[in-house]
Amino acid sequence: MSTPHPFATTLHIRDHCLCLHAQRAARRLSRRFDEAMRPVGITSGQFSLLNGLNRPEPPTIGAVASLLAMDRSTVTANLKPLERQGLVQIELDPEDRRGRRIALTEQGLALLAAATPIWAREHAAIEATLNGGGDALRGGLNLLS
């Protein structure tokens, strides 16, 4: 026979669980940025991925996966629609023929340039609602990531 889980414990977890609060906030932020990015035809996740590819040298899939805290197969799956749209180009790594490097195309760079001011406006609006402008929240999240 299992021990009953008191409702008071449920309420305590609801009110104090950092994971639950981070997940809820992440979903709300994603929806908000998805809506903001709609005019340029990408999602907030695609914006983060395109931004992560904006480097002097095309990164490996592994480097992008590490930056975004995703597994390589998820990054690869998320790159496919961007590749079909002509926003990124996936090539063999000249230093390791088993690996792949991803580069933004001219079209991808142009889209990122159009999306960045949208991100900046939305981000500033969100930070304006936070005590300390988001520095404390960002610092705490960085400690956990």
UniProtKB/TrEMBL annotation:
Gene Ontology terms: biological process: response to stress
Gene3D superfamilies named in the record: Winged helix-like DNA-binding domain superfamily/Winged helix DNA-binding domain
SUPFAM superfamilies according to UniProt: Winged helix' DNA-binding domain
Record-linked Pfam families: MarR_2
Molecular function terms from GO: DNA-binding transcription factor activity
HTH marR-type domain mapped to chain residues: 15-145
Listed name of the protein: Winged helix-turn-helix transcriptional regulator
